[in-house]
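Blinded run. Sample ID left blank on purpose so nobody reads anything into the name before looking at the predicted structure. Input follows.
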Amino acid sequence: MSIWPPEPGSLRRPAYRSLAQSIIEAIEAGELKPGTRLPTHRALSYDLGLSVQTVSRAYEELTRMGIVEGEVGRGSFVRAGPPDARMPWHRLARSEEVIDCSMLVPVTGEIHATRMAATLSELAEDLPATSLFSFRPRATLESHCAHALAWLARCGLETTADQILPTNGNTSAMTVALMTAAMPGDLIVTEEMGHHTLQSLTNTLGLRLAGIAMDREGVLPGAFAQACEASQVKALFLLPSGLNPTTATMSLERREAIAAVARAHDVWIIENDAWGPIQSRRPPPIASLAPERTFYFTGLTKCLLPGLRIAWLVVPDTLSAAARTRHLVTSWMATPLMAEIAARWLADGTALELLNWQRGRLARRNAIAVRILEGIDFCATPNGLHIWLPIPQTWREEAFVAHARHGGVAIAAGANFAYRVPQPVQGVRISLGAGSEQDIEQGLKVIARLARCTPEPALLAI
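Blinded prediction complete.
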């Protein structure tokens, strides 16, 4: 039976979403090949009995998702290849009234705007000249690194200012770490459910990437050892402290076992600790157990404020010079103004104040999740930015996500984080940071209803 074009009158409401889904299914089924020119908005609206505006909105949705691309004067075409990166969040139009639990962001409030306004006023009076005029990274950011030491200690890592490389956020730190630890063609291994942009980044850098088996604590030491014995592994990329989409958190014993395997096979470790000290009680970083081979990075974007794009990459002594060179050729240095704001907040207690505020708000939101999802199996951490909900066997993952979206809630499908085929576990990541507590409660109620119901077979086809 042909999927494309759909039969007139067969589309569900809202019709633009149903039409967009029909086009996606036709592409996946091979009926719409890469490069195929789609019908004009007017022609398709006439054939399906829809308004031109409905067809236009469906095409716009597909364009935002990277599935369709438009050329002025020629029309809309199926992309010749998949989007460059699998993004777990939904690209929401401003006009859409959707509770967005797909993007992993911290809770924000008036306190952040007030503190930032006060700091900017202070900077207007005594901004250091180096923040404006210096091209020398070490001289410009030397005092900043000294202030960062106390924050890193709060994360459980004692180090020296010489080993700290300030970067423009965690993504920049992650890029420098990969470029320093590996060369094009090298093999990187990671959790079978892991960081959503790692695939695209390793592809860009010419690295090979493979997922290895994990459990509720993360990567299995035995699976890591087997991967090292089967191939020459250059580095292991980890999210060991609750950042993993499944909220997996490694115990101290697991961290020690992973470090031992890395030493036995001479493998670098790249430890992503982007949340920093949001979780007040957790094992020390792997970098504190194996500092000679671990690249560790954390920042303030996820735990304090999205716009404060500053992070710190702690590099093994032997590769410190190489890491600084990689950073110079990609970013030169962290933006001095951002570093100056961060340094002031670290010094005057603002960072700690906002950290404690964040912990409190996230604890309340996690308590809401526990109450609304009572009786439903899900995974969480005490002050985590998200929860992981395994999908009941009565559902297909993509159908669950689609129905949540129809109910006004955007969530992230587990497929966006999977690095093994077949996907090891069906589930969704539900972020708790965006919107108000009332938004989170309403969104979780929609998700709870879906998790508790048994859908009709027809609904699973969505």
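Unblinding after everyone has recorded impressions. The two ends are 16 Å apart (CA to CA).
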